[in-house]
Write a structure and sequence with these properties.
The protein is of the alpha/beta class. It has helices at residues 14-28, 49-59, 74-85, 105-113, 132-148, 165-172, 181-188, 211-225, 228-257, 262-299; strands spanning 2-10, 34-42, 63-68, 90-93, 119-124, 157-164, 192-197, 306-309. The longest helix has 38 residues, at 262-299. The protein starts with a strand and ends with a strand. Bound molecules: uridine-5'-diphosphate (UDP) and magnesium ion.
Length: 313
């Protein structure tokens, strides 16, 4: 019998877990030809999420939980889930809040099992119900990243997916600590079937993504998949050099041919100074961002720390 392991990252999801479990049972129980396992990853929740997960584990032997020592983020939760679940024939990822409809799961498994796809993934068919600002920023982000990086990310792609074991193995072979799954999923490739999926309201609770968290995620994504911001430094440098030479020649010519007003040249000088300093400092900032990421990777700290689990290693 083939095994399917569903990973569910949970951060303060106590309000929705019972409902999610009911839905998962409803969808998965009739699929008798597969053996299911639900891997709940408690990402340092501050509510009663962990108690509920322990209760699930007692009532249903298919329920596993991995509980982090603090909040490490959804990326870390998905990684922990995949590292455990890689023994399964099919590994799935689904949000706890029921925004990802479990009803798609049987079709997704079929796409891999019967149609020969390696990945069956969901993509949002609309952005309805999302804040206008969030949508606009997100659109700009994907435009930028697809222009400047080596990979093409589908802007509506979601983490909701079912993958064959070989796909999970290749994702796990990527050792980076600053993980950006949308990039990783695209980077590893494989034959993917896309399922369009309407944007649903959260069943309960509220979103864990603040604008600040999203901005950090976006910067990680861009810096992780392209070094072109560094190349901008080179081209700006060349441009500055050319402008400098041009202005210099112009100044010499003016000096010899006219009586210059002292004040005007001061103003000019200051504006050029500010301009140059601004450019130099922002480029240093870009360098700093890359350096900070290199530093984080080199330290080699674990991506997450487990405090409790019902999984025997
Ligand atoms: N999540 C997590 N750790 C976090 C933030 C979110 O494990 O630090 C989980 C969360 O419990 C949910 C999924 O990731 O199952 C998606 O989060 P959310 O619904 O808040 O994001 P949105 O759907 O608003 O993008
Ligand atoms: Mg959600």
């Amino acid at each position: 019998m083939k095994t399917v392991s569903l990973i569910i990252p949970c951060y303060n999801e106590a309000d929705v877990l019972e409902l999610l479990k009911k839905e998962l049972n409803r969808v998965c129980d009739p699929l008798k030809e597969y053996q299911f396992e639900f891997v709940f990853v408690n990402d340092g929740s501050k509510d009663t999420t962990l108690d509920i997960l322990k209760d699930f584990a007692q009532r249903d032997s298919r329920c596993k939980f991995i509980s982090f020592s603090r909040n490490f983020g959804k990326e870390a939760a998905m990684l922990a889930g995949m590292q455990y679940a890689v023994h399964a024939d099919y590994v799935g990822i689904i949000d706890a809040d029921l925004q990802h409809s479990p009803d798609l799961i049987p079709e997704m498994i079929d796409a891999c099992e019967k149609e020969g796809y390696d990945v069956a993934a969901a993509r949002r068919s609309d952005r309805e119900g999302e804040e206008a600002l969030k949508s606009a920023l997100s659109n700009t982000f994907y435009k930028v990243i697809n222009k400047v990086s080596e990979i093409q990310i589908n802007d509506s792609a979601q983490d909701f997916r079912i993958m064959k074991q070989k796909v999970v193995l290749s994702i796990l072979s990527m050792p980076e600590r600053i993980r950006f799954s949308k990039g990783i999923f695209t980077w590893v490739g494989f034959h993917t079937k896309w399922f369009s999926h309407e944007n649903r309201e959260r069943a309960a609770g509220e979103t864990k993504w603040s604008l600040r968290k999203l901005a950090k995620y976006a910067i990680d994504g861009i810096l992780g998949y392209t070094s072109s911001p560094l190349r901008i430094a080179l081209w700006l440098g060349v441009l500055m050099l050319l402008i400098g030479v041009g202005v210099g020649i112009y100044a010499i010519v003016r000096c010899f041919s006219f009586d210059e007003l002292l004040m005007e040249s001061f103003v000019m000088l200051y504006s050029i100074l500010f301009l140059l300093m601004g450019i130099v400092l922002s480029l240093l900032g870009v360098l700093g961002e890359y350096l900070a990421r290199v530093y984080t990777e080199v330290k080699g700290r674990p991506v997450y720390i487990i405090s409790e689990s019902n999984i025997k290693q």
